Amino acid sequence: MNLNWDDMRFFLALCRTHSFVSAAQELKVTHTTVARRITALEDSLQTQLFHRTEKGCQLTPAGEELLPFAEKLESTVVNFEERIAGKDNQLSGCIRIGTPDGIGNCYLATRLSKFQVNHPALEVELISVPMYYSLSKREIDILVTVQRPKAEILLREN
Question: Which tens digit of pLDDT belongs to each residue from 53-97?
Protein backbone atom coordinates (compact mmCIF):
# COMPACT_ATOMS: atom_id res chain seq x y z
CA MET A 1 0.00 0.00 0.00
CA ASN A 2 1.38 3.40 -1.01
CA LEU A 3 -0.78 5.80 1.04
CA ASN A 4 -0.27 9.56 0.69
CA TRP A 5 -1.27 11.07 4.04
CA ASP A 6 -2.00 14.42 2.41
CA ASP A 7 -4.89 12.75 0.58
CA MET A 8 -6.73 12.65 3.92
CA ARG A 9 -7.22 16.44 3.66
CA PHE A 10 -9.01 15.87 0.36
CA PHE A 11 -11.02 13.00 1.84
CA LEU A 12 -12.17 15.13 4.78
CA ALA A 13 -13.03 18.12 2.60
CA LEU A 14 -15.15 15.92 0.35
CA CYS A 15 -16.82 14.30 3.39
CA ARG A 16 -17.75 17.74 4.71
CA THR A 17 -18.90 19.32 1.46
CA HIS A 18 -20.22 16.30 -0.52
CA SER A 19 -19.07 18.03 -3.72
CA PHE A 20 -15.83 18.03 -5.68
CA VAL A 21 -16.33 21.70 -6.56
CA SER A 22 -17.02 22.77 -2.97
CA ALA A 23 -14.11 20.71 -1.65
CA ALA A 24 -11.89 22.28 -4.29
CA GLN A 25 -12.94 25.78 -3.20
CA GLU A 26 -12.23 24.93 0.44
CA LEU A 27 -8.79 23.55 -0.43
CA LYS A 28 -8.03 26.23 -3.06
CA VAL A 29 -7.39 23.71 -5.83
CA THR A 30 -9.34 22.61 -8.90
CA HIS A 31 -12.16 20.08 -8.73
CA THR A 32 -10.15 17.77 -10.97
CA THR A 33 -7.34 17.79 -8.40
CA VAL A 34 -9.80 16.73 -5.70
CA ALA A 35 -11.16 13.97 -7.94
CA ARG A 36 -7.64 12.79 -8.79
CA ARG A 37 -6.53 12.73 -5.14
CA ILE A 38 -9.67 10.84 -4.03
CA THR A 39 -9.14 8.31 -6.81
CA ALA A 40 -5.50 7.91 -5.76
CA LEU A 41 -6.57 7.36 -2.14
CA GLU A 42 -9.16 4.79 -3.18
CA ASP A 43 -6.60 3.05 -5.40
CA SER A 44 -4.02 2.91 -2.60
CA LEU A 45 -6.62 1.51 -0.17
CA GLN A 46 -8.07 -0.71 -2.89
CA THR A 47 -11.60 0.23 -1.89
CA GLN A 48 -14.26 2.73 -2.92
CA LEU A 49 -14.80 5.47 -0.32
CA PHE A 50 -17.57 7.49 -2.01
CA HIS A 51 -20.68 6.82 -4.05
CA ARG A 52 -20.68 9.47 -6.75
CA THR A 53 -24.20 10.60 -7.71
CA GLU A 54 -25.83 13.58 -9.40
CA LYS A 55 -26.66 14.94 -5.94
CA GLY A 56 -23.04 14.73 -4.76
CA CYS A 57 -20.73 12.30 -3.06
CA GLN A 58 -21.86 10.04 -0.22
CA LEU A 59 -19.61 7.90 1.95
CA THR A 60 -19.55 4.16 1.41
CA PRO A 61 -19.38 1.90 4.48
CA ALA A 62 -15.58 1.78 4.01
CA GLY A 63 -15.51 5.59 3.85
CA GLU A 64 -17.53 5.78 7.07
CA GLU A 65 -14.98 3.49 8.74
CA LEU A 66 -12.11 5.67 7.54
CA LEU A 67 -13.70 8.96 8.66
CA PRO A 68 -12.87 8.81 12.41
CA PHE A 69 -9.27 7.86 11.64
CA ALA A 70 -8.94 10.74 9.17
CA GLU A 71 -10.42 13.16 11.72
CA LYS A 72 -7.99 11.93 14.38
CA LEU A 73 -5.11 12.36 11.94
CA GLU A 74 -6.29 15.89 11.16
CA SER A 75 -6.50 16.69 14.87
CA THR A 76 -3.00 15.34 15.43
CA VAL A 77 -1.59 17.44 12.58
CA VAL A 78 -3.32 20.60 13.81
CA ASN A 79 -2.00 20.04 17.35
CA PHE A 80 1.47 19.31 15.99
CA GLU A 81 1.49 22.50 13.93
CA GLU A 82 0.31 24.62 16.86
CA ARG A 83 2.98 23.26 19.20
CA ILE A 84 5.97 22.84 16.89
CA ALA A 85 5.63 25.24 13.96
CA GLY A 86 7.62 28.45 14.27
CA LYS A 87 9.81 27.31 17.18
CA ASP A 88 12.88 28.63 15.35
CA ASN A 89 11.16 31.99 14.77
CA GLN A 90 10.47 32.73 18.42
CA LEU A 91 11.19 36.10 19.88
CA SER A 92 14.42 36.02 21.84
CA GLY A 93 16.85 38.37 23.51
CA CYS A 94 16.29 41.11 26.05
CA ILE A 95 13.91 44.04 25.88
CA ARG A 96 13.76 46.88 28.42
CA ILE A 97 10.48 48.67 29.05
CA GLY A 98 10.53 51.94 30.96
CA THR A 99 7.29 52.94 32.63
CA PRO A 100 6.00 54.93 35.59
CA ASP A 101 5.65 52.87 38.79
CA GLY A 102 1.86 52.63 38.83
CA ILE A 103 1.52 51.47 35.24
CA GLY A 104 4.40 49.04 35.56
CA ASN A 105 3.32 47.43 38.84
CA CYS A 106 -0.45 47.53 38.49
CA TYR A 107 -0.91 46.95 34.79
CA LEU A 108 2.10 45.68 32.86
CA ALA A 109 3.67 43.23 35.33
CA THR A 110 0.81 40.71 35.25
CA ARG A 111 0.38 41.02 31.50
CA LEU A 112 4.09 40.62 30.83
CA SER A 113 4.20 37.36 32.78
CA LYS A 114 1.48 35.97 30.50
CA PHE A 115 3.38 37.32 27.50
CA GLN A 116 6.57 35.57 28.61
CA VAL A 117 4.79 32.22 28.88
CA ASN A 118 4.26 32.46 25.11
CA HIS A 119 7.78 33.76 24.48
CA PRO A 120 10.08 31.96 26.95
CA ALA A 121 13.25 32.89 25.07
CA LEU A 122 12.52 36.61 25.45
CA GLU A 123 13.80 38.33 28.59
CA VAL A 124 11.72 41.35 29.55
CA GLU A 125 13.05 43.95 31.98
CA LEU A 126 10.44 46.27 33.45
CA ILE A 127 12.17 49.45 34.61
CA SER A 128 10.53 52.01 36.87
CA VAL A 129 11.26 55.30 35.16
CA PRO A 130 10.94 58.42 37.33
CA MET A 131 12.54 60.44 34.55
CA TYR A 132 13.10 60.00 30.85
CA TYR A 133 15.83 57.67 29.79
CA SER A 134 17.49 57.98 26.43
CA LEU A 135 15.98 55.86 23.71
CA SER A 136 18.77 56.91 21.36
CA LYS A 137 21.41 55.48 23.76
CA ARG A 138 19.32 52.27 24.03
CA GLU A 139 19.00 52.65 27.80
CA ILE A 140 15.43 51.43 27.26
CA ASP A 141 13.73 49.95 24.20
CA ILE A 142 10.12 50.94 24.90
CA LEU A 143 8.94 53.95 26.90
CA VAL A 144 5.45 54.06 28.41
CA THR A 145 4.34 57.51 29.59
CA VAL A 146 1.18 59.04 31.01
CA GLN A 147 1.46 62.09 28.80
CA ARG A 148 2.09 62.49 25.11
CA PRO A 149 5.88 62.59 24.61
CA LYS A 150 7.55 65.22 22.48
CA ALA A 151 10.07 64.10 19.89
CA GLU A 152 12.86 66.26 21.30
CA ILE A 153 12.42 64.70 24.78
CA LEU A 154 12.65 61.16 23.41
CA LEU A 155 15.78 61.91 21.43
CA ARG A 156 17.44 63.99 24.14
CA GLU A 157 20.70 62.58 25.45
CA ASN A 158 20.68 62.25 29.25
Answer: 988 999 999 999 999 999 999 999 888 877 776 666 677 788 888
pTM over 0.70: no
Final residue in a domain of this structure, among 84, 102, 124: 84
CB atoms within 10 A of CB 31: 15
The count of domains in the chain is 2
Containing domain of residue 53, as a range?
7-84
Report if residue 115 sits inside a domain.
Answer: yes
Listed in sequence order, the residues at least 6 apart from 46 whose beta carbon sits closer than 8 Å to its beta carbon are 1
3-state secondary structure 23-54: HHHHHCCCHHHHHHHHHHHHHHHCCCCEEEEC
